[in-house]
Structures are given as C-alpha cells and as structure tokens.
Amino acid sequence: MKTTYYSILLLLVAGLFFSCGNSKDGMSSNDNTSEDAELISKKLSDFYAEAPDSSWILRVQFDSKVYFEDINKGLKFSGDVDELHVAQGADVVGISAKSNSHILRLSIDIVDCGNNGKNVDVMLRNKDKKDGTNYSSCGYYRGNPKLHGVWAVEAIDQKALNADKFPKDIPHFEINLETKHFGGFAGCNQVNGQMKFEYNKMNIAPLASTKMYCADVSDIENKILNILRSGPVVYTLKSGKLILENPKGSLTLKSVD
What we know:
With 257 residues, the protein is of the alpha+beta class. The chain has 3 helices and 18 strands. The protein has helices at residues 2-25, 34-40, 216-229; strands at residues 27-28, 47-50, 56-60, 65-70, 75-86, 93-98, 102-113, 117-126, 133-141, 149-156, 159-160, 172-176, 181-185, 190-198, 201-209, 233-238, 241-246, 249-256.
C-alpha cells in the first residue's frame, strides 16, 4: 500500500515539475489558465489578430510582450519584445520576441484588410532550427490598454492650465477602448467621438460637440478641440501622464482615479 502511495506521489511531483518547466520556457501545450484567457482578450492589447478559421491568435503589447497560440498544435508562445522598429516614412511595424526556446517575428503592414484591419505576417521557429512556421491574417490596432479611463487636461502646448478659469470643471475626457468612444467635457461644451488606432496614434473622427459659448473659456476650449480634430494625434504614456500631439499642438493629461 505504501509503495502504491509513494508511486502516485512521485507521479504528481513529476507532472508538476514538467508543467513548471514549460511555463518557464515560454512554450506550453497546457490548457488555458485565467492569465492566458486575459492575454487572449481582444480588448486588452495594443494589437490583436487571429486566423480566418480561428486556428491561431496573436496578441501584442508593444512596450512589453507578445503572446501567440497555435490552437491546432497546442502551442503557446509568450515572450518579451526584443526589437521593435517602424519603417521610416511608413507605418510598417516590425517586432521580434524571444522565449527560452523560440523566436517569433511579425510584421504589421499598412495594407488594409477586413474592417479597418491591417495585414500581419508571423514567423515562429525553434531557436535550434533555421526554418519556422509562417502565419498570415488580418489584425487590428486597439490602443494601449493604459489609455482606458478618464483623463484631465493639465497643460496645452506645455503651458499649465489654470483651473480657476473654469467655473464648471476642468476639461476632462474618457477613453473607452471597449466601445472605441471618446467623450467628455472640453471646458465649455460636451464632446463625443469615435476612435481609430494605428501604432502609437489615435484618430478621433468625427468629434462632435454642443454649441454653448463661455467667453474666455471658449478660447481655451477651441485650442483643445483644434488639436483633437486635426487628424491623428500621437500618444505617449509616461508616469501616469498622457501626451497627445500633432502639428497643431500638444495636450498633457493626467489620469483621474
């Protein structure tokens, strides 16, 4: 009886060791964990793509991780971004990521596909082999997950905003990545619009607003709206601040808890 008990215990320990080894290696054939389910989520990634037959999925967080799963082969890749470059004069994004055992390279083209999507090509190979497996499909920019939330305008063109000038409230906006909705208060009027994303870029069009006039506040509001309405804004996230800028100027916003 003791022999049987210890045999079962050894099998359980061996199984646990093998599972941990796969996790550390960045490749796994295990069932999805709750963390994997979050990684697969279309709503929580800078970029998301999947095969037309749903046989594989790709999730990219540009500043940190690449997650890839080949469902048919039972393979999961999770690796840190090793290299990222954007072709000069074009928004072609190239990324390389590595785990202990595999290398993944992907290219996001400027060629449109699907509903506001972009062509994406993926190559996954074992580090010990020259050849890998290639995948191609349509993928979608979804905006950095850290954008999701409410932001208050702190400065325009790097000049601090004087909160005392706003009798109602300081300008603030909510960015909802699930609905792609941009809305809030521009200092005098309520505004609403829909967002589209590219690499590090946000385009709000159309951005509609109510038509109230608020004397001096209206001049400040017009500067804000002029920036937001003048084509895509490049966004930068740093230390709890969000910077939106284009040739018309820049807005610095702080996160509102």
